[in-house]
Amino acid sequence: MKTLKTIVLIFALGALAYSCKNENQDASTSSTASETETTTNEKTGQAFIDDDGSTPNCLQIAIGSPDHKTLVAAVQAAQVENALVNVGPLTVFAPTDAAFAALPEGTVENLVKPENKATLANILKYHVTPGNLNTSILTKLKKLGQVNNQYIQIEVIDGKPVIGGANIIASVKAGNGIVHVIDKVLLPPTEE
Hints:
This protein is of the alpha+beta class. It has a domain at about 55-180: FAS1 domain (Roll). It has helices spanning about 1-20, 25-40, 60-65, 70-80, 95-100, 105-110, 115-125, 135-140, and strands at about 90-95, 130, 145, 150-155, 160-165, 165-175, 175-180. It has a seven-stranded mixed β-sheet with strand order 2-1-7-6-5-4-3. A hairpin with a 2-residue loop joins β4 (about 150-155) and β5 (about 160-165).
């Protein structure tokens, strides 16, 4: 009930502010119009909101990591930033720059081309699963349903989960889930 009152109060204040227009709008209207045009060309969505006060989300963790520059560049090229900042919870398997470097020469450069955006987005979504799955939970599972609607196999080797052949080398809690740093890029199975 308190939330409803707060929303009504905010709405009323907004309506009041809107109704109190300044009569000398001719100069400010033209500058506001050009500012609006500039603003609409910018990226929108949760991924582009500045927030220094809360626990970093999965995307912010990757951006802040010196070992995930290639992953961040790929996420930006595929324009899937918002998928990593959704409310979640999400489990993100984040390959290191070294994992991307281990791919055949030219693979990353080819994938970030605009014409390969859909393929790159599919690969990146294969690195995300719904839920907040720590390593102890992962050791109890045989496979995971990924965001791209495909499954990935899990093996347990020496008591540790191995995701699609990738080892988890670190785990970081995020505001919207967990990021597992992995040593291999996960490639979705090709449909035949």
